[in-house]
Amino acid sequence: MKSLLLLFVLLGFLESCSQEDSLSYNECVVSLATVEQVVSSKDFLLKLDNDTVLYPVDNVVNTFEPVKLGRVLINYTILGKNQANGDYNYAIRLNDATNVVTKEITRFSDVLQDSLGNDPVNVSDCWIGSHFLNIAYSYYGANANHFISLVQIPSIVAGQDADINLELRHNAYGDNSKNLYHNVISFDLRSLQLINTLPVKLMLKVKNLKGADTVYSLVYK
Q: Which residues form the NigD-like N-terminal OB domain (predicted)?
């Protein structure tokens, strides 16, 4: 997820931080997490994609309102390891937090074609964690709202060994500006458990900024 660290820099989310793969005390760390066990705006748990659970005992982000099962970009500092048999692994100071747009998978239909759009979008990183398909992406635009969706389609390439075929769709609504914007989005994969036995092989198709199709293979375990 090295490109994700670059994305955080571009988003102005951090200055000099580590990533969750190299957790250390007294240094700020940036991670993508899922909110769990919300008691209040100041009392909740955060679960990283590697299953590490964090408890913000010192929360300096007064504007952040946690939503259970919501995805969030967090900047935090580890204060200590939980020595008791509790619900978390580390106590932290939460330095910053930004909610990440989270969506469900859309079922393809001819009726939705126009609203889904087919504008190019660049994927710099994609990975699965905490039952979410996370995509770091970029597109050209201005101030207009753009629409990003993940669509389940019948097939991508004949002969490909995939259980589920997906396509990342982008509707720019006619916005042709040349400013490059970066963002991250999470798609909930838990609906796939209802019709498939894990692990599930996924094939993700993306129309990149050059107008060519790029295909990614992932496994949802």
A: 32-100
Q: What is the pLDDT of residues 34-80, one digit of tens each?
A: 999 899 988 999 999 999 999 999 999 988 999 999 999 999 999 99
> How do strand 164-171 and strand 200-207 relate by DSSP bridges?
parallel
Confidence (pTM): 0.85
C-alpha distances in angstroms, 168 versus 105, 148, 164? 10, 7, 13
> By the 8 A CB rule, do 61 and 14 touch?
no
Please count the CA atoms within 13 angstroms of the CA of 161 that sit on its side-chain side.
1
| Structural domains in the chain, sorted by start | 2-100 (2.40.50.500), 105-220 (2.60.40.2370)
